[in-house]
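User: Run a structure prediction on this.
Assistant: Running it now.
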Amino acid sequence: MSSRDRLPFLDRSDPDAWKALNSLAMTVSATAEAAGLDRQTLELMNVRISQLNGCSFCLDLHTRKAQEAGATSQRIAQLPAWRESTLFDVVECAVLEIAEVTTSLPDVEVRRARLRSAHDTLGDEAFTAVEWAAVTMNAYNRVSILSEHPVRRRGEP
């Protein structure tokens, strides 16, 4: 694609809006940490949301971050089938449930039931922290998808 055919990168076209989104992400991250959520769980959530949205840039970034936080390639590969997998604990399953509901927004009865179950596992503080984290990750996915951020090859000649 030539530079003439390319639409502007959304994050570069309005730096103040981009800074505001990054500020939101830092606040949400601190809130999640204060609620006792570990980085690996949140990065697995970010990967799952990016899978559902088809965001290649964020998939690349958050797969690396999940691995840096201690997630194995096996657990990352199991994310699309997390409900059938035995590799995720009850908290991780609740977080992944919130991730999927927040991303797909099923009808209200289904949404309420699935979120109620996650809330019962996590409690108020962690539940709302995860909801905010999922909302924020979905926003990042949309910025990257709309900007068509490229994924650069790593470790190859």
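The helical segments are 10-13, 15-34, 39-53, 56-68, 73-78, 90-104, 108-147.
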